[in-house]
Design a protein that fits this description.
By secondary structure, this protein is an alpha+beta fold. It has 9 helices and 9 strands.
């Protein structure tokens, strides 16, 4: 299993003076993680943006039906709602990395919590002698020493990391062109996906989604999976589970309340699905993420 051995919960704390009348992105969590090998965790997606800096080890990223090698000093960006999984090549040299979970990021012309055009971006530094890794060490020091106004200092360093990451992404980094059949229907498919994002708490079913796709059932399922690497109903479940994780992070709502808020009609079934997808129960997950190690 993936082992989290440094975890700093930040959440909705104000990291910037409200007097400046700004709405900055929120650094939800900053953690250090060691991955297991393939098969220990399932492919997943998030409603937030993730930035990884790999410090040690070797492994792989799987996304969009492709596999990419990962190694020390690689920087990886995963946009919101991009299906992915990263894992170690072996237990002898596991991937060890820093992980930033970022919310409330809105760039002009981009979906929320997204900074690339194809859902992810991978960049390799030659060594640790780069500004992003140096700022990560500064963040660790701020969290450990916790001097006065350290939250503001954390946000300043985080902002620099985010900007430096965005500067690495080529301006013309566009996604590979899909075949003509998918391209011609992309608007309808993305519109249906957005409908799921906005109405996941409602009792949605496949027939309801078909009304928004204007496609036949089999064609809709096939094209949706080609474009997003997951079926429509699987995507609905993933969105519900990600929203549940956020509620477990940030609220004291009961499991039954959270189950209802994210669209499950049974807390028992919600717990079963959560356990299967996340690898732990909702209550144990809440204890884990709310523990400041």
């Amino acid at each position: 299993m993936a082992t989290i051995y440094n975890y700093f919960y930040i959440g909705e704390q104000t990291l910037y003076s409200s007097e400046l009348n700004l709405q900055p992105p929120t650094l939800l969590t900053f953690s250090k993680v060691k991955n297991g090998t393939k098969g220990e965790t399932p492919p997943h997606l998030h409603t937030h943006l993730e930035i990884f800096y790999f410090e040690k080890g070797d492994g792989f990223l799987e996304t969009g039906g492709k596999v990419f090698p990962l190694k020390a000093n690689d920087l990886l960006v995963i946009d919101s709602k991009k299906m992915h999984i990263q894992y170690s090549e072996s237990n002898e040299a596991p991937l060890s990395y820093f992980d930033f979970a970022i919310d409330n990021l809105h760039l002009r012309g981009m979906p929320a919590n997204s900074i690339t055009q194809k859902g992810f971006f991978l960049y390799s530094f030659k060594s640790r002698r780069n500004g992003i890794y140096q700022n990560i060490t500064k963040l660790l020091r701020e969290f450990k020493e916790r001097e006065s106004n350290y939250h503001n200092k954390v946000y300043a360093i985080f902002t620099e990391i985010l900007i430096d990451t965005m500067r690495l992404i080529p301006k013309n980094a566009t996604s590979p062109r899909e075949n003509d059949e998918i391209t011609s229907n992309r608007y309808l498919l993305e519109n249906t996906k957005n409908y799921i994002d906005e109405h996941y708490s409602e009792p949605l079913n496949l027939n309801e989604l078909l009304k928004h796709s204007f496609m036949t059932k089999s064609y809709f399922i096939t094209q949706f999976k080609k474009l997003f690497s997951v079926s429509p109903m699987q995507y609905l479940t993933l969105v519900r589970i990600e929203q549940a994780k956020l509620l477990l992070h940030n609220t004291s709502d009961s499991i039954t309340q959270i189950s209802a808020k994210v669209g499950f009609n049974s807390p028992v079934y919600f717990t079963e699905v959560f356990q299967k997808m996340v690898g732990t129960s909702p209550s144990l997950y809440r204890k884990t993420v709310q523990t400041d190690v």
